[in-house]
Each structure stands twice: as structure tokens, then as C-alpha cells.
Design a protein that fits this description.
Strand 13, helix 15 and strand 14 form a beta-alpha-beta unit. This protein has two domains: about 200 residues, Rossmann fold (3-Layer(aba) Sandwich); about 190 residues, Rossmann fold (3-Layer(aba) Sandwich), CATH 3.40.50.2000. Helix 3 crosses helix 18, helix 5 packs across helix 6 and helix 11 packs across helix 16. It is globular, with a radius of gyration of 23 Å. Helices cover about 45% and strands about 15% of the residues. The chain is an alpha/beta fold. The strands form two sheets. It has a seven-stranded parallel sheet, with helices on both faces. It has a seven-stranded parallel sheet with strand order 10-11-9-8-12-13-14, sandwiched between helices. It contains 18 helices and 14 strands.
């Protein structure tokens, strides 16, 4: 009955949904990429004999988590075919970079029965894995009806999403009860999953697989551009302000002005969370009186501040930095991945709003691995410590080392459980036989 109710609601809302989709395509220019794939026409061969895992992540951050798990799946079971999908172009670009061994990579279908039905009939997965919060009811339900096993991997229920989910508990109870396994990041995630209706005997707290994400070096071309534009070869220290949102760049630039009083030669790299804001950020830098440039169109002369407006390069470029600030945390967004700079041995500062990263930040605070700042003045002080205070910098890096070593291993554990799920646990029906 829940499946019927959900799909009747989708049908009733379809005129509004179609109108919104047309608005995104025609006016905003979004959702055009892979449109036929979003309708379910995934160009995947339909072999009946192969064991196949279909993993779905929404965007770039979730793609990093998916890649950490899939790397171990491919190593432990190289005969298993891997199909990966994303919702956003940023997510797909990350999958193309991080999961080159996948059988196919593309866009996820709309969660309408005809779309997911067509997609599933083409992929014919043995097991489907939703990453973090990608709980699409029709996809999960129909995959099970057609014989696939289903898992939620690296699952979490962030504050805002959890509050919304509780208002539709009837829907989440149906979707979560359709999962064979839930591999969750924390005890809090497990508690929230149970509250939303997940069967307790299917819940396993594994840990956060992002502790196991691959460490990449910057490309020679990207490193050369950044070094040249910011004159890093002259020994200038580099502060990287990553994944920034509106309202944060102003505070970062105010902090940078204060840092310059102690380190006149310091340079700043700003990586806005959404690269379409690059020109807006450039204007803020110019108004602040700094020489600005963009990574995509390198300036002819050295600049004070460089805006990273390309996808997929930030994780590697952290290696060039001496200090990092991870955004979405001075603005009340909830925070972003603090582990990438730590994995590159760069000390990290964040703002007070880290509720979407609560578990990781709590562990980092306990380990002494992160500096929490409330405003531009405190941020400038933290960055100054990182650049000059040997004791403080060493303490943060040691804390980060402890944090990483104590929490790695979840990705391989998830991979082994997915392989077990794909190959065992009783009789099967449908194409997964």
C-alpha cells in the first residue's frame, strides 16, 4: 500500500515536477547532461550471468565515499562488475576520476517507476548500494522486487535531513525496511535509522569510509599554474580556503588581511563550493583591494589571491598548502570534508557550524586535530599559528595523524559486506540468480 500511495503522490505531483524540470533545463540550463539516462535509458549491457554492483552517490562528496568502498570491492572481487551513478555533473566527474575501473558511469534515473524500471532492466544488478543519504524509494523497492539485494553504505542522517524525514516517517519506514543491510557511520546514525523505521537487526555501525579516501597529488599542470600565479617557489606560504559559501569569502578576506600583517608574503587560494560563483568571488577580492586571478584562465602576472574554479583539483592541491580553512562552517551550512587536507598533512580550521560533519568534527576536536574559529579575527589567529607557531602546528598535525589512524578501515569492511551480500545469504529470485 505504501508503494501505491507514494506513486499516486508522484503521479498527482507530476505536472508540477515536470514544470520544475523544464524550468531547470530551459531557464537554468541544468539537468540537461545525461537526460536520456535520467529517463532510465542507461547504455549498459544486459548480461544475465555476471555479478554486478550498482552504487549510487548524489554529488562530489558522496562520490569520494563511494570510491573508497568500490576500490576495495574491485581489489577483493575483480570479477564483479561495478556500475556507478551520480545525480550532479560534479559527482559524475569525481566518479570518472576516482572509479576508472567501473564497467559504466553515468546519471541516476528519476525515481519514477517507468524510469527506474527501465534502468534496472538494463543494469540487472545483483546488489544495489545507496551512498550516505541517497534513499530513493522506488529504486530500492523495485530492485528488491526484481531480485537484487539492497544496502545503504556509509549511511548518515544529518540534522536537517533527519528533521524532514521524521515528517514523512511512513515513507522512510517503507524505504528503509526494503534494505537488506544498513552500514552506518555512527551510533547516532543508527539511532536515527531505527527511529525512522529501519529494522534494528539489519543495522551495522561501520564507521565513516571517508577516512579511507584516496590521497591524490595535484596534476603537474595544476601545480605549475598555482605555483606560478602565487609565486610559491619564492617561499611564500599558502593558505587554502576551501568549499566556501556566500558570506564566508568576506570573512576569509578580512582574515587574510590580518594574516598579511604577520606574513606580508602570504598567498590565498579560494575554492568556492559552487564554481559558478567564481566571478562573484573575484569581484569580492577586487573590492577588497587584492590582485585576483582564476585557475581556469591563469593571469599573466602574479596575484595575491587565486580562485579555484575547476572541478576535481582541490583534493590534490591541498598538498601545496601550509594552512587550510574548510567552509560551510562560518556560514550556517553544516560544514564540509575536513579529512582531505588532513590526509595531505595540512592543518585545518573550521567555523562553528559543522552539524553535517558532527561525528568527524567531534572526533577531530577530541584528537586535537582541528581549530574551531567563530569569526574572521579568530580565523586569522588560527592561520597565523599554523604558519608560524611550530608547537601549535605540530600539535594539530599529530592530532590529525591519530584521528586518521584510529578511524581507518571502514571502507574495506563495507566492501567485504557488500561482496558477501552479493554472493550469499540464502535463495534469490529474478535476474540475480
Amino acid at each position: 500500500m505504501t508503494a501505491l500511495a507514494y506513486n499516486l503522490i508522484l503521479f498527482a505531483a507530476s505536472p508540477l515536477l515536470v514544470s520544475y524540470l523544464l524550468y531547470r533545463i530551459v531557464v537554468l540550463g541544468k539537468s540537461r547532461a545525461g537526460f536520456t539516462e535520467r529517463l532510465g535509458w542507461l547504455p549498459v549491457s544486459r548480461s544475465r550471468s555476471v555479478t554486478r554492483l550498482w552504487a549510487h552517490s548524489v554529488s562530489a562528496g558522496e562520490a569520494v565515499a563511494a570510491a573508497a568502498i568500490l576500490r576495495h570491492v574491485h581489489r577483493l572481487d575483480p570479477d564483479m562488475e561495478i556500475v556507478v551513478t551520480a545525480t550532479t555533473p560534479a559527482g559524475l566527474q569525481q566518479l570518472e576520476r576516482l572509479v576508472p575501473f567501473a564497467h559504466w558511469r553515468g546519471y541516476f534515473p528519476f525515481d519514477f517507476l517507468p524510469c527506474v524500471g527501465l534502468a534496472l532492466s538494463r543494469v540487472r544488478p545483483t546488489v544495489v548500494a545507496a551512498v550516505e543519504t541517497e534513499i530513493w524509494p522506488n529504486w530500492i523497492w523495485l530492485a528488491g522486487r526484481l531480485g537484487a539485494r539492497r544496502a545503504l553504505v556509509n549511511g548518515q542522517f544529518a540534522d536537517r535531513g533527519y528533521r524532514k524525514a521524521r515528517k514523512a516517517r511512513w515513507l522512510y519506514r517503507w524505504a528503509l525496511s526494503g534494505l537488506d543491510d544498513l552500514y552506518l557511520q555512527s551510533a547516532l546514525a543508527a539511532e536515527r535509522a531505527r527511529d525512522l523505521g529501519a529494522p534494528p537487526d539489519r543495522i551495522r555501525v561501520i564507521g565513516n569510509v571517508k577516512f579511507d579516501q584516496a590521497v591524490s597529488a595535484p596534476s603537474e599542470e595544476a601545480a605549475a599554474v598555482v605555483r606560478g600565479c602565487l609565486e610559491l617557489d619564492q617561499g611564500r606560504p599558502l593558505w587554502i580556503a576551501a568549499s566556501t559559501h556566500p558570506g564566508e569569502e568576506e570573512q576569509v578576506l578580512a582574515a587574510y588581511r590580518l594574516v598579511l600583517t604577520q606574513f606580508p608574503g602570504a598567498r590565498l587560494l579560494i575554492a568556492p563550493r559552487h564554481i559558478e560563483r567564481a566571478e562573484e568571488v573575484m569581484e569580492l577580492i577586487r573590492v577588497g583591494g587584492f590582485a585576483a586571478g582564476r585557475r581556469s584562465t591563469p593571469p599573466q602576472e602574479p596575484v595575491d589571491v587565486l580562485v579555484l574554479d575547476t572541478m576535481g583539483e582541490l583534493a590534490g592541491l591541498y598538498r601545496l598548502g601550509d594552512a587550510a580553512f574548510v567552509g560551510g562552517s562560518l556560514a550556517p551550512i553544516g560544514g564540509h570534508d575536513i579529512l582531505q587536507p588532513m590526509l595531505q598533512h595540512v592543518p585545518v580550521a573550521v567555523g562553528p557550524h559543522t552539524h553535517n560533519q558532527r561525528d568527524i568534527v567531534a572526533l577531530a576536536v577530541e584528537a586535537g586535530a582541528v581549530a574551531i574559529t567563530r569569526d574572521a579575527t579568530e580565523l586569522a589567529q588560527a592561520v597565523t599559528w599554523m604558519l608560524h607557531g611550530v608547537e601549535r602546528r605540530t600539535s594539530l598535525l599529530r592530532g590529525a595523524g591519530r584521528l586518521l589512524s584510529d578511524n581507518q578501515g571502514a571502507a574495506e569492511a563495507c566492501a567485504r559486506l557488500l561482496i558477501e551480500l552479493a554472493h550469499g545469504r540464502g535463495p534469490r529470485t529474478g535476474w540475480g540468480q
